[in-house]
Amino acid sequence: MPAMIPAVLLLGFAGRPAGPTMEDTVRRYATDLESIERYYDVPLSQKGAARTEALVTETLKGLESVDFGRLDRAGRVDWLLLKNLLEAERRSLSTEEAKNAPTLRLLPFARRIVALEEGRWTLEKLDPESAATEIETVRREAEKALESARTALEKKEADPSEALRASKTLDALSRVFRRWYDHSNGYKPSFSWWCAKPYEECVKALEGLEKFLKEDVAGQRGAENDPLVGDPIGRKRLEDDLKREMLAYTPEELVAIAEHEYDWCLKEMIKASREMGCGDDWKAAIERTKADHVAPGEQDDLVMAQGREAVEFVESRDLVTLEPLVKETWRVNMLTAEQQKNWPFAFYGGQHMATSYPVPEMSHDTKLMAMRGNNRHFLRAVTHHELIPGHHLQLYMADRYNAYRKTFSTPFFVEGWALHWEMLLWDLDFPQSPMDKVGMLFWRMHRCARIIVSLKYHLGEMTSAQMIDTLVDKVGHERWTATSEVRRYVGDMYSPLYQAAYMIGGLQLRALYKELVPKSMTPKQFHDAVLRLGPMPMEGVRLSLTDREVTKDWKPGRNVLASDH
Q1: Is the peptide bond before 518 cis (omega within 30 degrees of 0)?
Q2: 408 near 540, Cβ under 8 Å?
């Protein structure tokens, strides 16, 4: 007997248009991509790359068959966003082998491990003696790779960036190797008889190679003074990433914009310095501001108070809708000493703001720098960025409305939203004292410097040491906090454009705000509308909220960054 479909479901489908909507298409692509990435969960998988490329090609073909003229405005925007995302993915896939070449040179056995694991997935017949021979081959190639790496280091021909990337890949491959081995070990007696000893010796060889690449070549020993080793991506990949973000600007133009914004910040900083009685010596004003910090044990209480203050400020001015639950469901967590090596200030971690403050195991000098870097006034400008009206509100709403658009998520939207608020709150006199102004301007100068140092680093025009010096000299960072920041910029924790996304995304949203408020929307209507759209490149937000024509051949425009100066 066929299953009965509840009437309520039939009613739900009755009002929908015939055939898949663009929302359905986006959801399907995201689900299929996630399925591929979960299944081919090994690094350097050529099969996974080929399957992803096939999905991208298939989805692009399907997009071209869509009757664009019959789509509503939201559907047309989704069509453009998905096409842009797919084209970006295709560009990335086309350079996959070239990007992997240095790692494969240092790990010539890597794809043997990948083949073993992928063969297990499809239940290829496993001959234990042949498996043992393959394990022995991996061991010999790993030992030979270690000899080659030692020779290159002695000749000063070793590249720390390539070595660090290879060591991370090898760490992941070692876990894959263990998973493959554990699947048969003990369950198939003949497999254990043949493979146990070769596997044990192979693991030692892999561990030795990984340790040498990481510690001896890349210099990463887990110490506070480890060298900062990154991986500059070059102009071509920067330009590709800018296309993905729908930004019709060159890296040099973004640097020039950042320098222009920095000049404004510096003038305002000198004004605040004069209000504090420090004259034009703005660095003296920063030093005095840094000295105003709470005693040990009080930082979490300070964050809670500042979070409530920001909520009261935006609600009293009717700037955005705050649901009761979003105000209720956030808290504060303290970061460990190890975490503060990468996050010297704070971050939003999902319904909590993780914040920094010195801990007992830090050296005396590091404690002082961490305490000064997380003073009351710097922190006051961070708390609303991470909580309300910043990321906590933003991500709460993203889960509530148009959640399928997480597929299009970009730091230019995520961080741009919080930066828009930093600038708007400045306009609305949120800083209550000259020190508050110094705190807000410190971060605004920092956002400008982030663009300059990160883009110049990836263009090969600045070293990590020069990046640290710039943050210290041009922004007023403690050297420890500057080092922690740069460690994150040059590493692989974030995309290469992430650091530029804060200020540039904020300027994009600020431009749209000035265009629409108060001419056609109130501040509250604008902010609610942006939140309910869901994440997407800022040009998608512009197309969604304005009456600009949305055509299949639409291209991102220029002059979409608002500056007051």
Answers
A1: yes
A2: yes
The set of residues, in sequence order, having a beta carbon less than 8 Å from that of 95 and lying 6+ positions away, is: 237
CA pair distance 554, 545, nearest whole angstrom: 16
CA 101, distance to chain mean position in Å, is 24
Amino acid at 443: W
Can you read off the two tokens belonging to residue 338? 């190890």
Work out the average pLDDT over 439-468: 96
Nearest to 373 by CA among 353, 392, 356: 356
Structure tokens at 42: 């090994």
DSSP 340: G
> Residue 112 and residue 542: Cα distance in Å, rounded?
48
Q: In whole angstroms, how large is the CA radius of gyration of the chain?
A: 26
Position 5 pLDDT exceeds 60: no
**pLDDT digits over 195-245, tens only?**
999 999 999 999 999 999 999 999 999 887 889 998 899 999 999 999 999
How far is residue 534's CA from residue 402's CA, in Å, rounded to a whole number? 5
Q: Which of 273, 161, 271, 260 is nearest to 217 (CA)?
A: 161
Q: How confident is the model at residue 4 (pLDDT cuts 50, 70, 90)?
A: very low
What does the pLDDT read at residue 135? Answer: 98
* Residue 45, CA distances (Å) to 112, 193, 213, 348, 495 in order: 11, 29, 22, 33, 21
CA distances from 139 to 108, 109, 144 (A): 11, 8, 9
CA separation, residue 56 to residues 66, 90, 253, 443 (Å): 16, 7, 31, 39
Give yes or no for a contact between 499 and 485, defined as CB atoms under 8 angstroms apart.
no
How many residues in the chain? 565
| φ, ψ of residue 7 in degrees (nearest 5) | -60, -35
Query: What phi and psi values does residue 332 have, to the nearest 5 degrees?
Result: -120, 135
Q: Please, which pLDDT band fits residue 16 given cuts at 50, 70 and 90?
A: very low
Give the tokens for residue 519.
Answer: 């001419």
- For residue 202, what are the contacts with CB-CB under 8 A and spacing of at least 6? 135, 136, 138, 139, 142, 177
Burial class of residue 32 (count of CB atoms within 10 Å of its CB; 0-12, 13-18, 19+): middle
DSSP string, 105-133: HH-TTHHHHHHHHHHHHTTPPP-HHHHHH
Q: Parallel, antiparallel, or unpaired for β 346-348 and 352-355? A: antiparallel
At what angle are helices 411-427 and 498-516 packed, to 10 degrees? 60
Quick one: average pLDDT of 28-47? 97
Cβ of 244: how many Cβ atoms within 10 Å? 19
CA dihedral 116, 117, 122, 126 (to 10 degrees): 40
**What distance separates the 2 farthest-apart alpha carbons in the chain?**
86
Query: Please, are residues 369 and 483 in contact by the beta-carbon 8 Å criterion?
Result: no
